Amino acid sequence: MRATPCIGICSTTYGDLVCRGCKRFSHEIVAWNTYTVVQRERVWRRLHELRDQATALFVEIVDEAKMRDVALKARLDVGPAATPLTIGYEILRRRARDVLDLHDVGMAAVRERPAAAVDIRDAIDAEFHLRSVAYYERSFHVSVDS
Asked: Under a CB-based contact definition with an 8 Å cutoff, are residues 78 and 95 in contact?
């Protein structure tokens, strides 16, 4: 597991309460280095759950062994505990431009109209952000103007 969820695209510096890059809350980003292992694991768990939920709306896993093989060959360090949806998302996040057919990487589009892997990745990311914003608003009873 990476030391931080940061992916180098931080929108909290522009006033967002939920980062458009890593989807953490602004106060989590500021306090990350002071968090205990348990606090960090709690944030990671929330992020993975919300991302897996978003991913499931757009792709289904049809061949987990093939997908794991693709991840291994692409040197995607997802860890042994990664869910199939997490592995699928990481393949799309890092290799979407190279994926011509989702079946080649062990996945299939959920929607009837096939879309390019890049479009599916972007749709997952947008849904992931929406879910993170909803989680923030529900948790803190504060409206996020995003």
From this structure: no
